[in-house]
Prior knowledge:
- This is Substrate-binding periplasmic protein.
- By secondary structure, the protein is of the alpha/beta class.
- Helix content is 37%, strand content 26%.
- The strands form two sheets. Strands 1, 5, 6, 7, 8, 9, 10, 11, 12 and 13 form a ten-stranded mixed beta sheet that branches.
- It is globular.
Amino acid sequence: xxxxxxxxxxxxxxxxxxxDEVTVFASDDYQPITFRNExxxxxxxxxxxxxxxxxxSGNKVYLDMASWKRSYxxxxxxxxxxxxxxxxxxxxxxxxxxxxxxxxxxxxxxxxGREFPFNSVADLKGKLISVTNAASxxxxxxxxxxxxxxxVDVNYASDVRLKKLLYDRVDCAVVNNGDQGLEVILxxxxxxxxxxxxxxxxxxxxxxxxxxxxxxKSMKMQGWLTAFNRAIKDAKLKGVIPSP
Length: 244
């Protein structure tokens, strides 16, 4: 009887612990994961996943979308979770992760006529690459960046990164989700869209990057993540999350 009572109290405690609205930070310009549409409304694969979790669990999630740099900084301080995060050894020291919910194909876009052979990170030696604030593009890329193999031009806005490419201010730009991701960026800006034929997506991906929801370890959200993992599995089965 006493054991059954203890189990009941544990269940009630865990339910109460995660009953309050949970804050999750995200980028507002991370196609197709999280972004704002032309009307300023939240969209994206991760947004749909969070809504699916809310429907299954009855719990609320406050999705705070802003720049990736701000979102990562707040998550790093334990102010909430962050969705769309990739794994690195350094991040594993400070974050508890969900199961992966999507695999993003990260590639390189160049200006027509300035293509170059790309088979590995070593082929980027000496190049100036346009990247997103606080983003990781895999351990190999990150280590090569720190070692000074190439240079980076950091810019939050994806359309600005492509404009720099168009006007020869960088050698290539990192773009997520292949040609589909490129098309989404181009459609945001009529000038870029009119010059669609000037952009070439190099055939070999830079990295295939599994994405996760994560919380700072200090928040002790492992139990919440277990429930979210069930929502990920259900969302995949029901087609809420598309294949990349």
